[in-house]
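Self-study notes.
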Amino acid sequence: MAESLEHKLQWAKDNPFMCVEPWRTIDIRASDIPGKLRANCCCNLDYNKFKYGLILDETFDNFNEVKSSMLGNRWHPGCNKCRKEELAGGQSERIRSILGHYDYQLADLLEKRSIDNYEIRIKFSNKCVQACRMCCAEESSLWQKIAGIETTTGYEIDITEDPAAWDHITKFIVSHIGKHEHFYIHLMGGETLIQDGARKLLNWCVDNGYEKYLRIRLTTSFSVIPDGILDLLLKFIKTQFVLSIDSVGDNYRYVRWPVEFQKVEQNLLNAIGYNNARYGNFAFIISPVFSLNNIFYIDDFIDYWDKFLTWAGRGYIIMNTNLTLQTHYLDVQALPIQYRQPLIEKLTNLLSHNMFVRHREETIHIYNFLTTTINELNRWPNDLILWSKFLTFTAEFDRRTDTKFSILNSRLYDMLTEEDKLAFDQELNKVNILKRIPIKYTYDNTKI
């Protein structure tokens, strides 16, 4: 894949409205409407602007509206975040997906309107042991708790507890068995490895003999590995762990409170050793989300994974993930212009890091993230409203988790003017942890 990076970027430029995801992915999760499931094709699709954002029947073919827009050479309103990212010269989820596919797959998409892999993502519940700063109540039960949000959303209920939903999901899986060269079931939480529904579905697949047709992909922080789960995953053709590891050292705990990095590191090493001892089929993708919470520690992150990849050998990929629509005030582009030059210099210096020479294929995605982020920082206009929201949210989260911006994200804090430090202190003094966290915003700064 690495050899054709320039070709893929040119493909994305030549086909500015085409995206791989609606043709090869469906993301299934609970909705706010009783008895209905929600379907997205990517995590950044704005389903509020997506007419068919609910699964209405067993065809699961809910993306015709988006596909029609693409084929008509126009952006669908639900794809607005990618449009804005690309207009600013950034790496959108659309481009990131294109970079993750082979040239022949992109050619097939244009010629055949199909692609040779398919993924059904299933979000079971928000049950989680971490409250990550870039998360939300829908994705984490602990985040929901510390944010003071009442547990009446339904996200804490495992989707497989609903007999109709279970029947819908299992019938859909059966309908796709044998139809794709690579068929993935992507398991998601909360923390995926502790989802009762995930284990239930894996056992159902094995009990019915489907494991020889299926590849498993799961998103996990590796903060916990329940007994027996690795044995179960070894039964499938392949299991790909998408590891949500965004930082190292003390800054990791700040981003993904309250787990320490050493615990995640040990779980990863244990899983690798377990797999190697059994000549297993596990693969690992390190999938960080970079934000204002950790971007100034990206050099430590790259130093760590350079040593890891040198030790572990081929087959461990680093592929960054963008922030979601609702947390744009944490995005690197929210950084005021007056603070950007040191970050631009840091990212520019990292482009010559030995990791990108020694492990080019495994790290091409994060290299591209560096180049596009530098471009965005040079071009993105000041948005002091977003910056204010970042300070407010950071104060809220610091107070609720008993962590300190000035210590665990000191590389950013120490750059701040006295005026911004005072503004942050004022926000800290306003926090009332007994009340619901007050900030949740869409991409265009509209409060929801």
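Second protein, same conventions, sequence then structure:
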Amino acid sequence: MLSVEVFSQEVLFRSSHCSLRVTAVYLLHTNRPIYESIAPAWVIPPLPDPHLMAGDFNLYHPLTDPLRSLSDREYTLSGRYLDVAFDTPYHLLNTPGVYTPFPFDTISRPSVLDLAFANTALYLFVTSWDMPLPSTESDHMPIIVTLNLPAVMLPLPTLHWALLDWPAVKEAVVDFTFPPCPTRVTANAIARWFDIFSIRLTTLLTSHAPAKCPCRCLKQWWSPRLSALRREYHSMAKCSRLIPSPFNCSNMKCLRRSYFKAIVSAKKTHWSDFLSTATPHSIWNAKRLAFSRPPQRFPHLLNANDP
């Protein structure tokens, strides 16, 4: 069974509207009866305010360590807490396959025991989960969870499936090993086998797909050709400032003319495509973009205190 060795809560921020709560949990394997174990719903409570749940959970699950072979007892114990966390809902912040404890002996293998959960009210503020700090005297690595305001937070990175490294994926798929089939055909065993297989395959694909982080001010009419023209223009502009010769200045002006002309052409092409594919839902957006902002109802008058 599992019992709580250390359970502490700290309210880091509180206002009249909401509060930020951080809970540290240390779950320990014991031989106590089942009625003395801590219920998952009590460890991961449903709170409306932002809540961060982190600590040494001592739970092995295929979501955090896809390559680990789990026993039925380990999968049952971790599944109880993970299911309650996802139903509450809490989001797991750990990167799959990134080990948190590194044992001192050479017999034990690294594992993932330190878990961090954030509820929906806090998950929008989380920007990263990382272990950049050096190791300490403990076998557990220090983990940093970075929070940021949504107003200044960039969109979350997504996987760029168009740039997936298919040759590397094919080589990895050849060496991919299926998890052993369950000895007893039960509903729990089949569900556990399917979860381990799907998580390992998903981790294999996501590890070979590069991530892209979209900009908040992403321009839909931008193209790789404009990026190349922009690099050439800025490179020649820098060269003309360092060596102000007539040849460099003329080349800089020519590249600048081509660069801005290509921008105007790309904007016109994108606007024509946008109007040709306009729908009843996007026609109002097209009207708002076509007409400028309406003038103010009361014009600005000099030396006037009010309208």
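Instructor comment on the second fold: Residues 246-276 form the longest helix (31 residues).
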